[in-house]
Amino acid sequence: MIGAIAHETRTMGGYVLLEATRRRTFTTMTVITVLLLGLFAWAVHELHVALADVPSVPRIGVDPQEFAAAQLAGIALFGIFFVGAVLGVLLNHAAVRGDAEQGLLQQVVARPIGRTVLLFTRFAVVGIVCAAYAGVTYLLAALALTTFGDWNPSSILLPGMWLGLGVLVVCAITVVVSIFLPTSAAGILVFMLVGAGLGAGFVLELTQTVGSDALDDVAGAVTWLLPFERCYQAAIEAAAPEGANAQLLSIGPLTGGREAGPTLLLWLAGWFAVVLGAAAALFGRRDL
Amino acid sequence: MPADTSSDPPHDLALDVRAAAKRFGRIVALDGVDLAIAPGECVGLLGPNGAGKSTLVKSICGLVRLRAGTAHIDGHPAGSRAARRSIGYLAELFRFPPWLTVDEALAFQQRLARSTGGAGERTRLLARVDLAHATTRRVSMLSKGMQQRLGIAQAIVGDPRLVVLDEPTSALDPAGRAMVRELVRDLADEGRAVLVSSHLLGEIEQCCSRVVILVDGTVRLDEPIGDVVESRGVLVETGDGVQRHSGLSEVDVPQLVRQLVADGVDVYGVRVTSSSLEDAYLELVRGAPDPAGVVIR
Question: For residue B85, what is the nearest residue in chain A, using CA coordinates?
Answer without folding.
Answer: A112
